[in-house]
# Entry
Amino acid sequence: MAVGLEVLKHYHPVNGVNIGIAQAGIKYENRNDLVIFELAEGSRVSGVFTLNAFCAAPVQVAKKHLAEGNIRYLVINTGNANAGTGPQGLADALESCTQLAYLTKVQAQQILPFSTGVIGEPLPMDKLLSTLPKALGALTDNAWVTAAEGIMTTDTLPKGYSQQVALTTAGTEQASSQDMINISGISKGAGMIMPNMATMLAYLTTDAVIAQPLLDSMCKELADKSFNRVTVDGDTSTNDSCILVATAKADMEEISSAQDPRYAALFSALLDAFTVLSHAIVRDGEGATKFVTINVEQAASVQEALDVAYTVAHSPLVKTALFACDANWGRILAAVGRAGVKDMVLENIDIYLDDVCIVKNGGRAASYREEAGAAIFAQAEITINIRLGRGDISERVWTTDLSHDYVSINADYRS
Amino acid sequence: MAVGLEVLKHYHPVNGVNIGIAQAGIKYENRNDLVIFELAEGSRVSGVFTLNAFCAAPVQVAKKHLAEGNIRYLVINTGNANAGTGPQGLADALESCTQLAYLTKVQAQQILPFSTGVIGEPLPMDKLLSTLPKALGALTDNAWVTAAEGIMTTDTLPKGYSQQVALTTAGTEQASSQDMINISGISKGAGMIMPNMATMLAYLTTDAVIAQPLLDSMCKELADKSFNRVTVDGDTSTNDSCILVATAKADMEEISSAQDPRYAALFSALLDAFTVLSHAIVRDGEGATKFVTINVEQAASVQEALDVAYTVAHSPLVKTALFACDANWGRILAAVGRAGVKDMVLENIDIYLDDVCIVKNGGRAASYREEAGAAIFAQAEITINIRLGRGDISERVWTTDLSHDYVSINADYRS
# Structure
């Protein structure tokens, strides 16, 4: 039951990106489970990966290859995560790259491998390797819809984003035709459903011409504002990966620094893509009936703002109250109080549900009426605004409620 | 559905402790909701309180009075937490002490107030104050069974502990008759059910003669090994309090330091009381079908051991797997990996379910058979042993599973 998630039917092709899809039968027959991205020579590629100390074999290989630069292919399989597979798993991830490199006449280190699916089982290499030629044969610039479906595991809906954007120059609102760029991307994940069928994956591409160092810093900053701010249950997978590609095929001068007058428009456009694709994962979170923004304001530091936001977002009591449409301000306030922020003063805390003040100076707001809170908690999309009265730092995270279906999905999976 | 929780029918009176109970009708009629402990002159009292930054009015007053020493009465009401009640709440908590002090001819600061129940509503002072004489009139040394029931809120069962203990001298196994002490105590709580009906309260008493400074350090150490190591859902209440009383009425020489040859036996006896009363809260956790010990060994520090233990204990994926009796080692391993421990090496991790090795060197143990794990996960009591291979520090925490009933209890409460 995805919350406010629409399926994208039309994508803008991104000059320099071709996608080929095939059925390898890795876990299920008659299902697209192998996706190859071909990137034009000269593409710049950046990525962020799981912070889980135990990252899967393909993540280890992808990080290493990415550091060497000049990436030309991404190869993604679903049905098997190649995680918890030891030295053989590492050899398998490398072999996928070696074989694809042989077929495409590039070097193995120019290929990034990704896997998602069951952990602890060996990757069926025969099936995977024998299907590479078929996926390569299918390469086209217009396979985004099928690709979004091809990387799904327990997702209930495919997740995509596509926009054509004019990079206006700051202060002018003008853009020459050379500054038109395409941005298209896909993501998968429904929370850390389980290590058996886990992983958030995201592939964002643009034909914009962005210098590699700037792309790297942008990718990290964009992920920190999006994929690193969404949480369903606090669990993070061993395979999480987010890749940003700039093929440099658009007809424009290179953007190499944040001082470039087009930078603000570029950042804003990419942030929109990152935001939509990361929120889609929350909207499709297991058992989700609500899409919830936790917005912490007036913090003294980023860390304390995030500590408060995540403590509220992960509180089972807050999450069950959201599921029950019960505007229980005591649960929110108690979660704020246990976030571990030093010298927090109750009397300085205000809490708003959307724009309705529910807590004022640490107590129930005199103006608050139960009906107003209930009306907001009945909505599918809710913003909880928490003002700490300590400074001027703001952070926000996005999450879901905790429903009976969450327990069912996660408790009944292997039964 | 409490897990392995037995109701205690007989308590040993503790010399110097009388308990009086009455019905004040604070929230419900015909229910004991006011409990007074009378402590003999010369009693030493220590306590630990919630770390939630927003502690309730009675906690603020109790902390202040406790610091002044010479405590003679504890007054506990259920039905109303006097939390989130601002300056009036503080005045009400103080007034309870003042009135009780007037009736008993002690000073107001010799009284510790405690409240548990609904938050955000004013304490019905008329009802509370007018019932104090009745509770005082009922004072007796044999009201423990009724007291354990009188402090319950959403608990399904009363929680008590009582033992007579001979303080043997280390190395001798001998105890003179003077070294016999009584320990009796009660606790309440079923996890942080909700701020509306929250709070873990515990009152442990002994007639042992223990010097105040030693009692203070023991109380903290004992709570750290028990009440501060149990968690149902990670939420902590605004009213949590744990009080340790030593009335000094036993016929024995004072124990004033850990070097006393009787100290080990005293500590061990009190630890048993703290352990049983804290575990009782987990066993009665909302919707609990399992009592789970998370035991982390071979850590490099206490902090990292606790980080791993709590990350596993709070993981909704691990908790739903426990509910489903699914020995899903991948979920446990992934939780270990995201605990934020620096430079953790997957290949050094071993995990045992009770004494069955399920993960060896970071992968599924070759000897592991699914039936063996399933048999253990079918038990009502399970120990998950996690060995990090980094050092020689161990820590353990106790928790429950996450069941449909947890969601129901917490989502349906106000509906």
